[in-house]
Automatic annotation (TrEMBL):
Organism phylogeny: Bacteria, Pseudomonadati, Bacteroidota, Flavobacteriia, Flavobacteriales
InterPro entries xrefs: NTF2-like_dom_sf
Organism this protein belongs to: [Muricauda] lutisoli
Protein name: Nuclear transport factor 2 family protein
This protein's record includes keyword Signal: yes
Coiled-coil annotated residue ranges, if any: none
Amino acid sequence: MKKILFLSVLAVLVFSSCQQGPVRYTQDSPEIDIVKQLISNYNNKTFDTSMYADTSKTFYNVSENPMSASEAMDYHKQTDANYSSRSFQNENSEYEMVVTDDGETWVNCWLGWKGTLAANNKEIDIPVHLTYQFVDGKIVREYGYWDPSEVVMELQKIEMEAKKAEEEMEPME
């Protein structure tokens, strides 16, 4: 009888030690699928905010003054004027979902972005990190980090060249 009791307790201990807790890290989740759809929408210039909570906040290279989801879509539409083409590249893209110690669900992604400036056909490649916080299947926070220096410098150069050409065209007094 003692052996049966001992084996029963041992079996319970072994069984309970094999039980896994909730998934805290994965590369396959519904939230990752939502982010991949969001990236696809960006590439297709489909400016859909249905993946965002009404109160979501988006931070692109800033820590204050977030944008709403619709303001973020307007931001993309406005910057599109600078490019003849632009998209996130599929190769070498990485996605992960983590659940923090505080129970927050985040999806991180590392992507390559490529754009061609409309004014001079210069191609620019930029590594981008995006991270999204989810609550009840909706994005409540979005953070985007990239180095815009090359784009800014090229746009300034284009502007200076246009201004110089304009000044050369003005009649002499």
